[in-house]
Inverse folding.
């Protein structure tokens, strides 16, 4: 048999860069199809809206909303516009998402480490927690936590586990720091203490390089951190604290976390932490056993092995799925609607019911969630690049 | 320098090491050899308390290791492992400087030490800022050796140090280790399952089987016939015989009286193995050693 060489397929009409006319034609056809479908959908929408006497546009945003919203981070009354109502909803979403991400990360890391513990009881308990929480629907858990929070005693019999802390049907009451000049100076004192601690640390590092000796800086550092604000309190006056006081059927003063916010935060944190725990465990286990061995053989203490050798290598495995969990938590916060927390989706739903401008409102909250998610991804990717394993 | 005194180690029901007593003198290159599962790695790990004896005592520099602080003990004993020992997220220089940094050396002193060690293990100083992933297997193993030597420990433990590199590099690294041992005079305890490697490197041999000591002593003495049946089976009779010859010197074996005129010349510092090879190549039964002579019968054990 003679050997046969495969002839390369001959392009119909050769184009520069190795592309063929056929490829270009296919792509153009696809682009035209997408445009046509989009245009027909848009016309269909306009026709349907016209049939209901609606006009496409965002003009309704400037009309008065008349939606009562119980929790708002910025001043708000039902007389305010839809634009303001949606902003209040967005801020409520961001509040629960940011707090949730921070708390879920802390709880998740602790649970992940506990899952790897050599103590069988601790390991078993965390394992059980993770399996139960990961394998039941989040909506169910939110309703459950909300029901629990609503089972709390009435205001007059509020639980008082710590002075100034009241837990009741109306949520959690905590003392509030008043923004006055004394608080400002206390803040300045904390900053000064931190800078002084950092300078001390630098001096000790230099000392170690020069003499090989090093003194621990945590004792003087902590003394500075607590001593300076207390000193400032004596000299300038302590910042005013507003304590919640029971007056009649409600509390006066202090900060309130509503039962809805409290239940939503609790549910999201407990749910997401279970996933983060598994991610942290997998990340730590992805580091080869030889690394533990080598670090131990060199005489590193267990805490240092984790901090200097294992975690930096585990992070590159942990960060990408962790980002997904942050995005999930943010988007899951829209389940707030089932327990009545006024987040963006909840406010948007009411807006749709009142105005009928469903397409515009949904477009707004899709855009908002997209922006939040993209910003989160962007930040996490930047962090990932910073800690990524450099090959050379 | 290192003494095992009737040491046993138990892992659950299994006994990995059973009643081993052996002493390693300062400056020795002692090789622990035996089939897999013979307890050699466990015995090595006892020295820096990576394993703890269930009975008996391990003494390092005359002190019971059970009473020593594990972290300080480990920093005072170098440790080289088969693979995966380098930290991939640190540069070569930072890897080598790990223990000096833990000991709180000033930065310039660490940098100088890293440079010195790279020269000792014959690595290009330009590699210092590279990551371990950019190194070849042989280079990585040299970095591992440099890291173990960083704080100038007088004892070096090596667990199958050449197990993960190809045969050619392995031979090169063995020669390098012999050279570094001669240059630094460290006490080295090395684990291998390769009998030929053990014979080539060892000044002292410790042979284990199923957790028990089979033989221990100077390599030349162990290699001399009549070798125990297990040693013959482990090393092979040819390797044992050749190793014995390479550990003995021509000057010590030569007889008085001149050699015949045609006899090839050999230096008194040469080993008997080299004399044997010269005899083979020239077909000469007698070699000249200055004014003395070395007949082939002098190669026989006395």
């Amino acid at each position: 048999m003679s050997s046969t060489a495969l002839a390369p397929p001959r392009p119909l009409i050769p184009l520069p860069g190795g592309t063929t006319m056929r490829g270009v034609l296919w792509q153009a056809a696809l682009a035209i199809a997408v445009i046509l479908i989009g245009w027909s959908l848009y016309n269909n929408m306009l026709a349907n809206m016209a049939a209901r006497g609606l006009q496409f546009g965002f003009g309704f945003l400037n009309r008065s909303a008349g939606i009562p919203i119980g929790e708002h981070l910025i001043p708000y009354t039902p007389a305010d516009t839809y634009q303001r109502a949606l902003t209040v909803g967005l801020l409520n979403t961001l509040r629960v998402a940011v707090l949730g991400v921070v708390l879920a990360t802390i709880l998740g890391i602790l649970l992940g480490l506990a899952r790897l513990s050599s103590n069988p009881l601790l390991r078993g308990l965390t394992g059980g927690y993770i399996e139960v929480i990961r394998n039941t629907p989040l909506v169910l858990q939110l309703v459950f936590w909300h029901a629990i929070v609503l089972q709390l005693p009435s205001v007059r019999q509020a639980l008082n586990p710590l002075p100034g802390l009241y837990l009741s049907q109306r949520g959690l009451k905590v003392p509030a720091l008043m923004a006055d000049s004394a608080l400002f100076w206390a803040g300045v004192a904390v900053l000064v203490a931190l800078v002084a601690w950092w300078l001390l640390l630098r001096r000790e590092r230099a000392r170690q390089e020069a003499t090989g000796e090093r003194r621990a800086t945590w004792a003087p550092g902590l003394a500075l951190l607590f001593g300076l604000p207390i000193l400032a309190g004596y000299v300038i006056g302590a910042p005013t604290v507003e304590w919640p006081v029971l007056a009649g059927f409600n509390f006066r003063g202090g900060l309130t976390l509503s039962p809805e916010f409290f239940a939503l935060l609790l549910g999201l944190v407990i749910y997401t932490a279970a996933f983060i725990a598994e991610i942290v465990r997998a990340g730590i286990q992805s580091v080869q056993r030889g690394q533990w061995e080598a670090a131990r053989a060199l005489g590193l203490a267990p805490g240092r092995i984790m901090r200097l050798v294992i975690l930096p290598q585990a992070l590159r495995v942990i960060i990408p799925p962790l980002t997904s969990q942050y995005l999930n938590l943010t988007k899951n916060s829209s389940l707030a609607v089932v327990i009545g927390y006024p987040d963006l989706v909840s406010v948007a739903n009411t807006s749709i019911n009142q105005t009928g401008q469903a397409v515009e409102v949904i477009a707004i909250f899709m855009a908002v969630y997209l922006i939040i998610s993209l910003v989160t991804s962007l930040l996490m990717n930047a962090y990932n690049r910073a800690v990524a394993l450099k090959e050379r | 320098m290192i003494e095992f005194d009737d040491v046993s180690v138990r892992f659950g029901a299994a006994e990995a090491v059973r009643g081993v007593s052996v002493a390693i003198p300062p400056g020795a290159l002692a090789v622990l050899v035996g089939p897999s599962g013979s307890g050699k790695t466990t015995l090595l790990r006892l020295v820096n308390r990576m394993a703890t004896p269930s009975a008996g005592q391990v003494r390092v520099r005359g002190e019971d290791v059970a009473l020593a602080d594990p972290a300080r003990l480990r920093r005072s004993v170098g440790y080289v492992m088969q693979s995966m020992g380098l930290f991939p997220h640190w540069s070569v220089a930072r890897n080598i400087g790990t223990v000096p940094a833990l000991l709180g050396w000033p930065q310039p002193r660490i940098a100088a030490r890293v440079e010195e060690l790279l020269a000792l293990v014959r690595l290009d100083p330009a590699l210092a800022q590279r990551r371990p992933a950019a190194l070849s297997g042989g280079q990585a193993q040299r970095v591992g050796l440099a890291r173990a030597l960083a704080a100038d420990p007088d004892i070096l433990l090596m667990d199958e140090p050449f197990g993960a590199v190809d045969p050619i590099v392995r031979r090169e690294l063995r020669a390098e280790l012999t050279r570094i041992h001669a240059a630094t005079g460290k006490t080295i305890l090395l684990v291998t399952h390769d009998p030929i490697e053990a014979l080539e490197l060892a000044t002292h041999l410790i042979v284990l089987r199923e957790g028990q000591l089979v033989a221990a002593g100077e390599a030349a003495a162990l290699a001399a016939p009549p070798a125990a049946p297990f040693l013959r089976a482990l090393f092979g009779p040819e390797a044992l015989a050749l190793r014995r010859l390479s550990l003995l010197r021509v000057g010590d074996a030569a007889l008085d009286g001149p050699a015949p005129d045609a006899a090839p010349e050999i230096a008194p510092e040469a080993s008997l193995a080299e004399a044997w090879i010269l005899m083979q190549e020239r077909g000469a039964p007698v070699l000249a050693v200055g004014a003395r002579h070395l007949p082939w019968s002098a190669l026989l054990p006395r």
In short: The CA atoms of residues 90 and 230 of chain A lie 38 Å apart. The longest helix of chain A spans residues 82-115. Chain A is about 65% helix and 5% strand. Chain A touches chain B through 27 residues (CB under 8 Å).
